[in-house]
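Shipment paperwork, digital attachment
Item: protein structure file
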Amino acid sequence: QVQVVESGGGLVQPGGSLRLSCAASGRTFNNLVMGWFRQAPGKEREFVAAINRSGGSTYYADSVKGRFTISRDNFKNTVYLQMNSLKPEDTAVYYCAADDNSLGLVFMMGNAYDYWGQGTQVTVSS
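Attachment content:
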């Protein structure tokens, strides 16, 4: 079983920045593919970003490409989501997810991920 805990959400003005952190435990961290998803009120959960086990490959939704950066520190068992140039439409609950598939494949579909955090609220508003 993998435990996933997010932190770092909050209220930020448009154009501002936030960094989300996600700590995972219960499994060797560098065996986990990690992803970030978000869900805005009244909308379905959507993919934001994902990173492979080594951190050498990253993937982004078009809506955040160039503004968000996913990274990981395998010594700290933590994955990060640096969010810059935030827009009101980025307002959502952000979820961190872990996938322990044996091939280390990176998926952008939420149902591929086995373990989820409780979510952290990000609100972008003036």
